[in-house]
């Protein structure tokens, strides 16, 4: 019986790890899978656990008001030492680039427990962009024993860093598994405003911003660009789930409060958010995961950043890097609203991130690595 401990702490990690946990649970004769959460994010994590019906064996509940990276790192490291010492798993699974991810890999290393890194190999080559995620991902990669790269580009990044090829498996991204399991035809929103939008006759722009490097004037420029677009296009509606960070909320209120057809809402649970992606016309975001999610539903994405660790989407044509300059953000948004051929080219480009079988491939790779299965899994190829 192989003992696997999946560790995560934020909503994005939970979304991407949930389908993998559910897939691991389908193999009870061979794999004993448990979940430990740090709750680096509390409320936003809990709703994903509820949606996917995941009950953690361990909940460190480390989130505190006003926490910083030092707080998260120290509390998670101390808590995970106790969990790992008690469980003694054969493999610890971590995801992506959060502080929880790096700390779980570090704690496992200290106890000489193998680490499997889901969504391994993404790189911008700028350790401060995104911050601290790029460094977290690099450091986790140094400690990982198994690397589940979502794409061939991610695998090449790992190979260039000296990772042995037999330790890399190209699987696709588990976020596509999660999204395909969550979007529902005819879905009804609990929010009266969201349910009242005529998605057939209105063009809905879904907007999210939260990056530390965009706080202040960069975000202000983004919101001013949105104002210009809304004022010029009567059929455009903006739905903006506003991040809880006061540094984000204050600027949003100053720039967009009271503007007709701009709907500022609280951060959304994953199920309505996934279905809102499906109903939207266009996405503007500085998020990482949405660069993978939206194209799987044929939605172009304007990335409000100067760098991306997901260049495959840029190369495929499903996303465009536009930064935060007001004129460029407004100009690229106008282009997609005005030029139907350009819009269709982005909307119909092949999503390079997954086919809904990433979790299956990862489980097959784990079984292969530990000698439970003799067959190396087929690689994802878009």
TrEMBL record:
Ranges for domain UDP-N-acetylglucosamine 2-epimerase: 23-367
Superkingdom, natural source: Bacteria
Record key words, sorted: Isomerase
InterPro entries: UDP_GlcNAc_Epimerase_2_dom, WecB-like
Metal-binding in keyword set: no
Keyword field contains Isomerase: yes
GO molecular function: UDP-N-acetylglucosamine 2-epimerase activity
Entry-linked Gene3D superfamilies: Glycogen Phosphorylase B
EC number(s) from the headed UniProt entry: 5.1.3.14
NCBIfam families associated with the record: wecB
PANTHER family: UDP-N-ACETYLGLUCOSAMINE 2-EPIMERASE
Similarity remark: Belongs to the UDP-N-acetylglucosamine 2-epimerase family.
Protein name per UniProt: UDP-N-acetylglucosamine 2-epimerase (non-hydrolyzing)
């Amino acid at each position: 019986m192989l003992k696997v401990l999946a560790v995560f702490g934020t909503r994005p990690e939970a979304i991407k790890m949930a389908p993998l946990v559910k897939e691991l649970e389908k193999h009870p004769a061979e794999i004993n899978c448990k979940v430990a959460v740090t709750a680096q994010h509390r409320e936003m994590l809990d709703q994903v656990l509820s949606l996917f019906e995941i009950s953690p064996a361990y909940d460190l509940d480390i989130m505190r008001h006003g926490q910083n990276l030092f707080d998260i790192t120290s509390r998670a490291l101390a808590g995970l030492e106790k969990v790992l010492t008690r469980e003694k798993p054969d493999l610890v699974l971590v995801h992506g680039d959060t502080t929880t991810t790096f700390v779980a890999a570090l704690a496992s290393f200290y106890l000489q427990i193998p680490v499997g890194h889901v969504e391994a190999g993404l790189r911008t080559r700028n350790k401060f962009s995104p911050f601290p995620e790029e460094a977290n991902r690099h450091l986790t990669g140094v400690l990982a024993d198994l690397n589940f790269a979502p794409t061939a580009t991610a695998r090449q990044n790992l190979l260039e860093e000296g990772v042995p090829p037999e330790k890399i498996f190209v699987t696709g991204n588990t976020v596509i598994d999660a999204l395909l399991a969550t979007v529902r035809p005819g879905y009804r929103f609990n929010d009266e405003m969201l349910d009242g939008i005529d998605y057939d006759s209105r063009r809905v722009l879904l907007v999210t911003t939260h990056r530390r490097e965009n706080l202040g004037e960069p975000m202000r420029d983004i919101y001013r660009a949105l104002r210009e677009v809304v004022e010029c296009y009567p059929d455009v509606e903006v739905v903006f789930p506003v991040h809880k960070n006061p540094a984000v909320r204050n600027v949003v209120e100053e720039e967009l409060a009271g503007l007709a057809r701009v709907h500022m809402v609280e951060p959304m649970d994953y199920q309505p958010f996934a279905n809102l992606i499906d109903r939207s016309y266009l996405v503007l975001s500085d998020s990482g995961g949405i660069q993978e999610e939206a194209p799987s539903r044929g939605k172009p994405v304007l990335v409000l950043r100067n760098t991306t660790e997901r260049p495959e989407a840029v190369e495929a044509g499903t996303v465009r890097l536009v930064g935060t300059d007001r004129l460029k953000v407004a100009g690229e948004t106008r282009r997609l609203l005005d030029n139907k051929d350009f819009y269709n080219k982005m909307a119909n480009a092949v999503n390079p991130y997954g086919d809904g079988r990433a979790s299956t491939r990862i489980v097959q790779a784990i079984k292969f690595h530990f000698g439970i299965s003799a067959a190396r899994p087929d690689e994802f190829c878009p």
